[in-house]
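Priority: medium. Attachment 1 of 2:
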């Protein structure tokens, strides 16, 4: 997750001239104890890309085992045994879940975040060497409050034809997401945190969010802090995205900003993400746009597994298996850089399995470095 310079990226993607491999991690005795992870394949392309992760984990001999549950977005509620599994295992990997538009079925993604208090969503949007994009030097981490705001789902029909939707912002949730963003920046050698808001219009709600961010910022004098109105933020993202480093946002804005940043840096198919709380973490594709794909992708088995593979690398670091995470991330980036095996969204025609096979081959290459 740490920001890497171009010279460091070259060292990651290319073998050393002397043929020796540098040691990045020395495990302590007992660090390799296997961990059970809850797996939700999900809808659409979900089973394809989660299946890709399972193949890669097996090929790496990663100390991770999956407890799989069938969950679909049209279910009225998450099965209790799924919640119990995540509470027990602490970590979950999931494919996309279809969310019905309109109607009375609530989002299972929202239910999961609220039930487990997964208050922080993190999406890492960055350029990948070998993958051409409109902008270079994009390396943005979007940290989004995940439990309140417009996503609270507090809606009702006042009278026929009039619907009231409530936006709830609290001091507690605003402070803890700001704290998470600044702590992330501090631990990952990031230089700036930008708060995204609309406090010029929503003076009380977004004003409270900004007030919390400002208070937390005073505790981190070594990190630059600034603020930007969300509409200007979107314009700046598509014109000069390299100015942003870590962005902290309320719920709805974060969803829009993360997907915009993902599109700038290569598309939703290559952006990893995760949702974390005090006790639990759920890793999934970072950009929600297209996370269940379409039926044609499913039939042709040409879904892009890269985003979830990189998310699983984040998961491995969370589980304190950094050597496995480094190996997986390096192999995936090598496949992207060489460009021989890419799915349609990245300009190629490969199937999901062909990308998986290429990553497995690069895992061996990484091991021999």
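Attachment 2 of 2:
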């Amino acid at each position: 997750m740490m920001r890497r310079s171009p010279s460091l990226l070259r060292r990651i993607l290319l073998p050393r001239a002397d043929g020796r491999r540098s040691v990045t991690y020395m495990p302590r005795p007992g660090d390799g104890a296997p961990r059970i992870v809850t797996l939700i394949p999900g809808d659409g392309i979900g089973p394809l890309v989660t299946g890709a992760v399972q193949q890669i984990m097996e090929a790496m001999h990663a100390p991770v085992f999956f407890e799989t549950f069938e969950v679909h977005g049209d279910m009225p509620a998450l099965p209790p045994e799924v919640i119990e599994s995540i509470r027990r295992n602490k970590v979950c990997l999931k494919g996309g879940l279809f969310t019905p538009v309109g109607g009375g079925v609530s989002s299972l993604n929202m239910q999961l975040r609220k039930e487990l208090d997964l208050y922080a969503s993190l999406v890492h949007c960055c350029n990948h060497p070998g993958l051409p994009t409109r902008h270079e030097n994009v390396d943005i981490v979007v940290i989004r409050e995940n439990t309140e705001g417009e996503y609270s789902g507090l809606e009702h029909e006042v009278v026929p034809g009039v619907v009231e939707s409530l936006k709830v912002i609290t001091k507690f949730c605003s402070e803890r997401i700001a704290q998470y963003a600044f702590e992330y920046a501090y631990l990952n050698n990031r230089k700036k945190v930008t708060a995204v808001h609309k406090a010029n219009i929503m003076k009380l709600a977004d004003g409270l969010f900004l007030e919390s961010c400002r208070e937390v910022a005073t505790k981190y004098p070594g990190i630059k802090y600034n603020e930007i109105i969300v509409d200007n933020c979107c314009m700046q993202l598509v014109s000069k995205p390299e100015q942003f480093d870590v962005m902290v946002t309320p719920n709805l804005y974060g969803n829009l900003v993360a997907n915009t940043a993902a599109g700038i840096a290569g598309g939703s198919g290559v952006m990893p993400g995760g949702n974390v709380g005090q006790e639990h973490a759920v890793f999934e594709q970072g950009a929600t746009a297209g996370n269940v794909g379409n039926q044609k992708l499913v039939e042709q088995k040409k879904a892009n597994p890269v985003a979830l593979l990189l998310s699983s690398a984040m998961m491995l670091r969370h589980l304190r298996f950094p050597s496995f995470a480094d190996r997986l991330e390096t192999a995936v980036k090598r496949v992207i850089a060489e460009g021989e095996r890419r799915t349609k969204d990245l300009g190629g025609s490969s199937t999901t399995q062909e990308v998986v096979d290429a990553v497995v081959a690069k895992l061996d290459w990484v091991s021999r470095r």
